[in-house]
Prior knowledge:
Blueprint: E1 2-7, H1 9-29, H2 33-48, E2 51-57, E3 62-67, E4 71-77, E5 81-88, E6 96-100, E7 103-107, E8 112-118, E9 123-127, H3 131-144, H4 153-158
Amino acid sequence: MYHKTQLAWAIWGILAWLSTFVVMGVVLLGNNVGVLAFGIILLLVAFAFYGLTIKVDSTDKKLSWWFGPGLAKKTLNFDDIDEVKAVTNSFRHGIGMRISHDGWVYSVSGFKAVEVSMNDGTKYRLGTADQQGLLEALQVKVKEQPLDVEVSEDEKSAL
Length: 159
């Protein structure tokens, strides 16, 4: 079983930058309700998106991922997956959860990702710091797929 959590350094950096405005607001305005509410919202976002966890369960034949403590959880069955491959995200893919021209993107930091193509044509890009490890964990799914190779009668008799 594969189970990794990538911490959201990029999101934390953005939230740290935004929190400087909260500190400046408290210094300049005092205990303003709006400033304090904005600070609380930043803390909730930091808690909800502290990282992206990806889990590959070979026994249940499922791929799952979620943000933080279980926010926006998605689970796919191996039978519904057509292909997995290593990809590199660009700046336009961004961070967080979004739809792009390449399908759904789930990422918290960095540019490495694994693209999961579904039988129905839907694509998911899962950002990961352990691209090779995730691909190896998903190879169990790839190995279970039947090969579409035609075998001649001579080859069948040799088997």
